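Quick one: structure tokens for this chain, please?
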Amino acid sequence: MNSGLNAGAVAEYRRVLLQSDFDRFAKLTGDDNPIHCDPAFAAKSHFGATVAHGMMLYSCICKGLAELIPGPGAVQLEQSLMFPNPTFVNDQISVRLTVEGAAAGVLDIATDVCKPGPGGKLLPTATGRTRVVPAGVAVPAMAPFAAGGESGDTALYGLRPGATAAGERVFSAADLDEYGDLTGDRNPVFRDDGAARARGFAGRIVPWPLLAGMFSDLLGTRLPGRGTGWMKQTLRYPAPAYPGETLSATVAITRLRADKELVNLSTRVLAADQRVVCDGEALVLVRNLENKTG
């Protein structure tokens, strides 16, 4: 492999997540969904206590990638995530990344976040895969994500297929610094203009978990709304986003499954010039919605 990594290469580290971490991530992303930030609300949910943001767990994966892959800054093309079990306050998570192969120099990496479970076994809390371009390999062009068009129910708790929510955000250099301090993700493409230019960018770029955090904000506070739980997310990064740019995020309901209280949504972030900087598809659980109007 051009990266110098062989299949089977592994990076692993541990971290204990605190309520203060949840609160800082909520302030940074705008996602103050009460399942993350309101212990009284979360205690009445099926979780029973506050849980980590899905994108905070993703940021822990990104920290591991920055340490696993040598060179001046790995670049993610795609990330898939499933959240089979919640991560609670004071849980010690184990982040494990395993290189499984490469094609045209692009690494295929399994990403696993776990926590201790009954009997000493590890419970997965965020599992998935990523495709990453290491230093010395040109970043290929990426097509936007094509969302599925499956049929489903016409209504659930007042939600309807085709409903949308949108928001704007301008990330500052201070936001990028706070992201690095909170998550430990020291990828130089987020921190240093020179390192980012060496990878073909105009300067330092907005971290991918912050872009996806724009979806998290909308999903957890607007559509479906406060109390939404993230089950799955696919992410793709066709173009970089830069601090100081006005970014517009949109989520749109594509499918409802009333019997399972599940909602599928398309997710997209555009720059002011309409280039797609992040897109994909979300699957969320609406069992704990604060306002069930339907």
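The chain has a mean pLDDT of 92.
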